[in-house]
Amino acid sequence: MSLCFSAALLASFxxxxxxxxxRADFSDFSPDGKYFPLKDGFPNPNNDQILTIQKQAxxxxxxxxxxxxxSPEGIINLQLIALNELFEVAFFSELVYNVSxxxxxxxxxxxxxxxxxxxxxIVAQEELHALNANGALKLFQQTPIEPCRYSFPVTDxxxxxxxxxxxxxxxxxxxxxxxxxxxxxxxxxxxRAISSVIGNEAEQEGxxxxxxxxxxxxxxxxxxxxxxxxxxxxxxxxxxxxCPNIDIIKLKTFKPLNVLSKDIxxxxxNIKFSFAKADAANDELKSLSLVWxxxxxxxxxxxxxxxxxxxxxxxxEASLPYDEFLMNGLxxxxxxxxxxxxxxxxxxxxxxxxxxxxxxxx
Length: 362
Ligand SMILES: *[C@@H]1O[C@H](CO)[C@@H](O)[C@H](O)[C@H]1NC(C)=O
Hints:
- By secondary structure, the chain is α+β, with helices and mostly antiparallel strands.
- It is built from 9 helices and 8 strands.
- Strand 3 and strand 4 form a beta hairpin.
- 2-acetamido-2-deoxy-beta-D-glucopyranose (NAG) binds next to helix 3.
């Protein structure tokens, strides 16, 4: 199908009006937030099942030899990738279920076939990413990461795709960090394969953007992210206490930072935030700053405007300097101790108390 045709097709989805159906009617896909094992055997498919997954993914697992060594930091990289890919498989499997069963809010009408075909391949590709990361951990005598129970804050196709676009952007930033850490620790033998996954996830991102009527590529240099930010963001989708062995991943979990502003436009403006009062001591408020991370630019530090305690919640605003930095695509925000300046996102992560607040512009 020609590009123009597919773009027009996707832009002209007809959404069926939701009919009144109780949630309970559809809870058989993920009873109690439990998604695994899938019908194809994932996360522990046998050899025949792997062949089927590879067909659906339109490609195979890498079949070259693993590198001779893996650093301790490299192990954390693979653990984080496995944790993330397991979550993605859960999400996209449920999205496929919702769309194929035309649940209320998921009836695409025209365009159904193309979307189903793409989503099916995405599920299988994410499965292979997870199997590859956990497989490498096993080769190096490390415990593979086990899936959690999950809960996703979406109930229609458009919000599901918008969420997929956001967390895929976080992955696209985090794999930059993963590659840098592999390189720094002598694990250069894994950089090429991870770079190939960055490309795959970016192709997916182009699809999510097309479906949202956004131009295909967001910005010339994609926003960087750090492992601790991704680790915290993933846990926003897990049922608390349900991850069997997340404790072995030696990364930081920050306290939540909520972005209250909605439909943020491409212009300089104040953004509204909130967080739980208990997550930052009273006397700390004056010493806190808000940091913006976008593209490959140095972190931008700004002050909290009008911080106000409202019951158990602290609310404040911060100025987003869109006009100066053209902050398209993903922006990561974090509340940090002190006022910087921070040379890189690594320094921001060290000072972060609350975050990441995720913002998408365009
Ligand atoms: C699938 O639909 C159910 C029922 O509306 C919803 O709770 C769940 O979040 C949806 N999942 C995805 C990934 O869209």
